[in-house]
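Usage example:
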Amino acid sequence: MRIGVDIGGTFTDLVCIDGTGVLHTAKTPSTPDDPSRGVMEALALLAETMSLALPDLLGATELFLHGSTVATNLVVERKGAPLGLITTQGFRDVIELRDGSKQNRYDIRSPFPQPLIRRPERLEVAERVNAHGGIETPLDEDAVRTAIAGLRDAGVEGLVVFFVNAHRNGAQECRVRELVEESDWAPFISLSHEVLSREGEYDRISTAAVNAYVGPGLGGYLERLAARLAESGLTAPVLVMQSTGGVLPLDHAVRHAVGSVTSGPAGGAMAGALFARLGEESHLVTYDMGGTSTDICLIEGGVPLERQETQLEEIKIAVSALDISALGAGGGSIAWIDPGGILDLGPHSAGAEPGPACYGRGGELPTLTDANLVLGLIAPDTFLGGRLALDRVLAARAVQRYVAEPLGLSVENAAQAVNALASARIAEGIRANTVRRGFDPREFTIFSFGGAGGLHAAAVALELEFPRAIVPREASVLSALGFLAADVRHDYQRAFGRRMLDLTTADLRELFATLEVEAREALAAEGFEPGQMRFERFADCRYVRQVYTVPVALPDFDKGDDIGWLTDGYEAEYSGLYQHLHERDAIVVDTCRLVAYGALPSLELPRGENSGSDPTAAKRGSRQVYFGEWLETPSFWFEDLTPGMRLDGPALIDSESTTVVLPPDIAAEVDPYGSLIIAKPGDGK
Amino acid sequence: MSSIDPLTLAVVRHKLLAVTEEVVETMVRTCFSPLLNQSRDLSAVVLDGDAQVVAQAERTPIHMGAMPFAVRAMAKDFADDIAPDDVLMANDPYWGGSHLPDITLAKPVFRDGVLCFWVAIRAHQSDTGGISAGGYSPSAREIWHEGIRIPPVKLVKKGCVHEDWLRLVCENTRKPEDTRGDLMAALASVDVGVERLGALLDRYGVAQIQNCSAAILDAGEAAMRAHIRRWKPGVYEAVARYDHDGVATERFPVPVTITVGDGEVEIDFRQVGDQVASYLNSPIANTSACVYIAFFYLCNDQQVQNEGSTRAIKILTRKGSVVDPVSPAPVTGSTTFAAAVIIESVLKAMQAAAPDAVVAGSARRFRYVIAGSEPEIGSYIYHYFSNKGGFGANNNEDGWINVGGFQNPGGTPSASIERVEATYPFQIEEYGITVESGGAGKQRGGAGGVFALRYRGSGSAALNIAGEGTVIAPFGANGGQDGDPHAIWIERGSERIDLTGRSNDVPIEPGDLIVHHSAGGGGCGDPKERTRALVERDVAYGYICEETARDMYGAE
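Running the assembly step on the lines above writes:
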């Protein structure tokens, strides 16, 4: 039995696959004051639905995979640990100077992003390593001791050590840690070259600072959770979701806390990858439409695409992460008329409080959810399993006042405009993501989930001329389901910075062998047998004049000593992305990365038998829906759908957390995994 | 017009924006030079049949307002001789361009034999010939010194690329293959834009898309007029100054008179002096773009960012002046150095009219180049882009640190010092914030920085500086103080050699320390009104000293 638990902003989702391969789910409100309480409540609910005592459930659990927004929230809400910095003489302000960039160039009024380390706690010591790793100035250990005492007295809980060129030689950073350990102070320590062994002072210090900022808080939370789980009978280790879509054991996850910061949407992308493999979809794009935003991720050959840096609130986090981009359109996005008189949607959101007008919590402004309610797409009484009754009158009033009247439209036409605008924005967002990566959007299958995803899936698919769209049955707990498909993953890297022409295969083989020894030790310590270990090697390369690197996968080193094969590999990657080469420019191998996987037992989702195409058994009722005219539209219950059933639009498929809309002339079929497959008109089987 | 469907309008607006984004993404993915695919110094627009911008991919602000001038010059020049599948090209400042490195390509979109839209892209080329690599030459005295002039030409005629013209242009640059690669990429990008726009026209019908684009322009105009009506009507004057005209005159003035009327403004630059002999002249397209940028900053509203909004802004200039030069005045500094001064003049004048919206002065562009040669690395040229200086404060927020000036705040990321040390014979000894460099104010100007570079080569090398703002400091607004100006010097042993923003061919010797203090942004509002807690923080953080806190901010 394995359990995945995902703590979101509003709900804690839980998915369990039992020994017979059956899926069980539970959903409870999150408990932000102590998120581990919400986990225990969800577990209690799960045990109850499975008619088990909690200790029996946990005792039988072999894998416990967990993801939370704890680390993310510490950054977003600026509630992390008080930090201190020990750095090279002359460089205390690197973290504040940033890299000289700004995301929105016209927005000159946003507040300056205050650095995570306050200036008084940024202390300089004499030391210097040169660009080749040579020690120009030895570490002034007395100055370090004084700095340690000062930072300890200032109440610092997280210590960042950043020395210039430490990626070439980290000895002096390591010596600072030894000096701390010799003192009577035990802060959380981030050494820049350990968090990120890569060239680039701002990338390293920013990433190391985020690590120390969230480490203590995440550690405290995870230890509390692990203790509660152990008390209740869990014997398996707690594995923590990372931004890479892999998981790490608890202690390692705390040391590498920065890996959790952008892990929020990774579970959904991993679920997308799972379904892509099950359905043999070579190109899949996931879109997760929640309350405030829509997350988009491309999955090629069953593997989500990655990137090497992320900006969160103008803070740079330069660790591997799934390449998920967010679009400011969700159910809570506010529809408004701009100063020129044109309708727009977002990026402002009503959030959870006061929420959309229809929540009746004082929200006055019309949101996408209000528009969808006015159109009859959302069932007012079964939203969130009926726990939150939606007020259609309030929704209509908001749409009427802020959209319909200014535009001179009927309320239903105004609501339809908001709905259509949302679909168009998601479609264009997906298109931009595919084009950016050099793909044709028409080659992709859509994979839609999140509370608001199913409402727009068919419209988005139509807009993009996709062959089909998939809405999984587990759409509401998909992120937690994605956890169950994860493997343990360790990422290692070394700054390399050598020209390709000067290299032989043996140079790389030697470097990767060193990394692999480290990785094998770590995996073995976690109980993995050599047969369960898998390694992927990447050389991040660039032309000598360029800044950004292109990763080249190195499948094996079964090559001659001539490095020509790597040049070929780089040129193939580079021209695939950019359609040209710079044949006269030298190529530099910037960074070498090893990704080490410890394989967890592979996940098989239960397949149902085809029980015929007639959906009558799943029909629940009908309601009036506006599709340009009011149509009495049959509604079906998602959980009652069985494989093979065919639904013809107009139709609604409701569940506790979402509704899937099939407009007129659109058909859908249920596949063996219970997913709804929406096909273009004429493509239906 | 009246029958336009609000739903279609809202959707089409986003789709037109998506067309421009797709053009930019295609260009980034296929272009050659690092300046483009890494710094993204390029922009794309969709224009209507009258060459008015209806949608733009927000990239380089200075490109935006200027591009329609180039496309209109093309349209006028070829008049009735424009056919489907033509692509026009130009860079000439005296044919609607800004400066020679910015080459614009535009492709018309026809329906039923009528030219109804354009898709255009502008990209900054790493070289277009001229006396110095990269085009920025303080010693240029005529436009021909600055590189190849391309008046509007048909690079593609009815689908056939003019191979010979392409060769002619490319061979006039220092990197023919890069230029060719970039131009071919730009061609591919406008093709993608035209295809996507064509799909929109097919789906919604030409008339409907034309109605939508007219409505989008009208909306931009209405939004701008609404903003202007919030400001105090009247006549306002201000003067911004260059450090130097590049040849003879210090503190060269750019005076402006702005009349704020009922929903419209008039910007009168007719008192500005004659064009100068150096590259600091600003062609009318660039001058107009600068004025629009200033007003977009004042409005801080995405919706006003189309050409409809410029209908409310009337610009008066005198032919033959610095802000509207005639051939053969050199102009390469227009998009950076001149741009900052022109934007400043407008913002300074608008302080009294729109005190709530104003932004204080920001660090001007300051860069230098070190050219040398080492046995191990060969000849090298290091372009210094770090330490950009502070941005001006506004009525709510302190200025940003290290994002540089008005023409492109935070546009290009700085190279890492570790990369610089790994590539060149330099060691960086300090990169930090300069205390007290941001102008005092209720909101403080963004601090300037210090960048100290030790030259560790084996022989001498040459230092060339091209920077504005060592004389003129970023201005304070609404009673705020000016920031510090830029300063640069060489420390050689105990000797200090002071330099200016125009010091050229300065020999540097092994062991020299080149120290640049970047300008701090101007403050906004009376410093005495600054929140006590913030003054205390500023002292604790070492941004200001206690004496300043007491004397300037009135702290106890």
